[in-house]
Structure formats: C-alpha cells, structure tokens
Amino acid sequence: MSNGTACILMEEMEILNALQHPHSHTQSGGETQAKFFSPAQINEFKECFSLYDKKQKNKIDTKDLITVMRCLGTSPTLGEIQRHLQVHKLEKADELDFSTFLTMMHRQMQQEDPKSEILEALRMTDKQKKGHIQASELRAKLTMLGEKLTNQEVDELFKEGKIKSNGTVNYEELTRMVTLPPIDY
Fold this sequence. Notes:
By secondary structure, the chain is mainly alpha-helical. The longest helix is centred in the N-terminal third of the chain and has 18 residues, at 3-20. The chain is elongated. It is built from 10 helices and 4 strands. Mean pLDDT is 80; it is low at 1-32.
C-alpha cells in the first residue's frame, strides 16, 4: 500500500467516524490539547491563530486555514484542507474555533509524520507480526508500488542499511535509518 493510499484510508475512517459520532468534534479541545500538544506548542499555535482572528472572536475564516497551518510548519494540500473541513462539517465560507483548529493540526501533523507512515505500511506487510519482512518482498513493493524506486535505488538503500538481498529486514531499524535527519556538516 502506498503512503497516499494509507492517507486516504485514514481520512476516510475519520470521515466515517465523524458521520457516526457527529457531535464528537464539538468538545472543548482540552482533551486534544493535553493529549497531543505541549503547552509551548499550544501557545505557538494560539499566537499564529490569533493573527488571523480578525474579529477577535477566537475564530478564523476557513479560507485562512491553509495559511495558518503552513505558517506553523505543516504542508497541507487544498484537498487535505477540504477533507479537514468535511470531517468537521464546515463550508468554505464558515469560521472555525481554536479547538477545532487544534484537532485539524493534530490530524495534519500525524499525516505528515513519515516515520509512522512508513512503519504502518511495513507492519501491514508483516503477516506474522514478527518485526521483519523478506528483503525480496520489500524490493518488490519499493519498485512496483506508489512512487516507484529503481532497482539501483533499492540496491543503494540495501547497501546503506546493510541488508542482504536474500535476507530479512527489521523494518523498525530500516525506518529509523531512512528517517534520520541529514548530516549537517
């Protein structure tokens, strides 16, 4: 399954959940704040949110959502913004409150976390749930699904990860390796 497919499935599950529990998004947001964000993050989000709260009603226009999210370091597409609004039953001309914004930020940040996306995709390949998959299976997935890699790119990845082409791959170690920040010389 490609990362894009995984994202679409997650978003569809969120929409189904919102349809089954239509009032769950109207909570105070304290639960979301306490569970997912540090006080420093909440302050940063609130500061940026406030810049777009033109009427000073603790609300922003939905048209400003993409700008606020991007100012805070996420990279939502217009389609992702539309899905966030859809989950919360908001129209393009509506306003959203800070609590709803926090929920949307949490979902967006989760969606953009490459480490968890990669791990989830690899876990789905691990039928026995043992923490490893066959290198040949990983090669097939990397060269045939999603954004396809060339055999040469997979060879480089295997070489860097010290993976034998006839062996198994510990996917948690592989994920850590490929999501390490680049070395800053």
